[in-house]
Amino acid sequence: MVNLVLVLGDQLSDRVAALKAADKSRDVVVMAEVADETTYVGHHPKKIALIFAAMRKFATRLRDDGWQVAYTELDDTDNSGSICGELLRRAEQFSASDVIATEPGEWRLIDALNHCPLKVQQVEDDRFIATHRDFNEWATGRKALRMEYFYRDMRRKTDLMMDGDQPAGDQWNYDHDNRKPASGEVDTAPMQFTPDETVEEVLDLVEARFGENFGELRPFTLATDQAQARRALAHFVKSALPKFGDYQDAMMEGEAFLWHAHLSAYINIGLLDPLEVCQAVEQAWKNGDAPINAAEGFIRQIIGWREYVRGIYFHEGPDYTQRNGLRHSRDLPWFYWGGETRMRCVGQAVDQTRTEGYAHHIQRLMVTGNFALLAGIDPHQVHEWYLSVYIDAFEWVEAPNTIGMSQFADGGVIASKPYVSSGNYIKKMSDHCGKCSYNVNAKDGEDDACPFNLLYWHFLDRHRDRFSDNGRMGNMYRTWDRMAEDKRGRILDRANAFLKSMDNGQTV
Ligand code: FAD
Ligand code: DLZ
Question: Ligand nearest 398 Cα, by number?
């Protein structure tokens, strides 16, 4: 009996679990570009193009490898518009009733497959280092699920940068070396690829169907197959990794990528294997081509943070994206969708998000995320924004980073305190403030004071009941309480005036 083998747009690896469980000589691979997946949020056009182009090329590769592939293009007249609809159509065509699927990275789609009137077996996605069981065993009985301890287990499990049972260099974490502000010339850039015929066809389709979505489609220079993604990885390791650690937290005018890898989308859709990426980085360190703080810092992002947030997403369950621990309810301001703002750092982060579908971690966390948290924006709207605008965004990785790490909406499952900062942090780590029309040095509630300076105290003041007992925030509250009462009043008044202007749609 023929099985259908579902391969989704972010499962484009020949070692994906459903393919491993199937029989090439008998089963039919089903791949489908469908309306449901392209519209559950308004994806960045570059993201849709990346996924469609990579899907089409992967289908060709599977066929070349001897698989029978039933592929639906978005514009096919008989396209049913949903993954389940396509499975039903193919089941009839091939007289199949059973489907082997790799578990999707989103509860929405897991649920849709569970309700699809076919026998769908969802096998665990084993492109990760920690299984669901590993994570749940690690989490069971712990008072707090902190990444650092989980990461150490992943180092032991993978043997990456280990010296027996101990970390290479005798330290697990070299983060204290990784906080230099950027300076001088950025001497690297992610590798770019000229669109081939398949990519050009997809670009025309995406332009016609999703040209109105937020984000620029062209120029499109992303890797769209495994061979290209591997070249992008090798290029990163050679040209950017050595400085990745030092400048990991830095931000610079007009520089979207700095020494970051720009590999997350390729890893997330299956073009690169996370362990393969880490092994390439470890090898560069072993060869003396990258310092230990860079290699350890990079590997921690993947086997630490990436694995950890996935564990949290599945451990916490389908209601995670609805959480709103701080009861924030303000609408996401228009300038997140490209409207004008006088805040230079926010404007730059949003602008490169529009052009590239990319912003690096500190921009996401300490600029757009920090602002949303300080201003009290509804975390679900923040979540939908991040899920829409980045080419690497899939709910299993985006939601814990947004709802948990960035917005503290999960009540502290991920973070032990909210990631909030005044303008001082942005001044220290970037060169934006010198070009900003606000004054980052104005700290007394002046008219031109940096909004981050105002909203930082506004946030602490309005959430005193929730955070004043948090040991890691005691200093902040002591500083606030030591300020003269009239100064505190001025800051809060100015912060409220700023929020009011923003809510009224004025340019802030
Ligand atoms: P680098 O900075 O070069 O890091 C190397 C790799 O480490 C990345 O490619 C990525 O695979 C991994 N990594 C680093 N940080 C994280 C992290 N916190 N969680 C998971 N993996 C990490 N990452 C996504 O892949 N998809 C998302 O939708 C996403 N949404 C985010 C939303 C918010 C609010 C925040 C604060 C972070 C988010 N991240 C997300 C994490 C991180 O910002 C991106 O992985 C990173 O910016 C990707 O760029 P890069 O490949 O240049 O990464
Ligand atoms: C993100 C995305 C988009 C835009 N389009 C498709 C598609 O047409 N077909 C498909 O199989 N997958 C697509 N994807 C990826 C899925 O949305 C993704 O598999 C789920 O969100 C689970 O991570």
Answer: 1
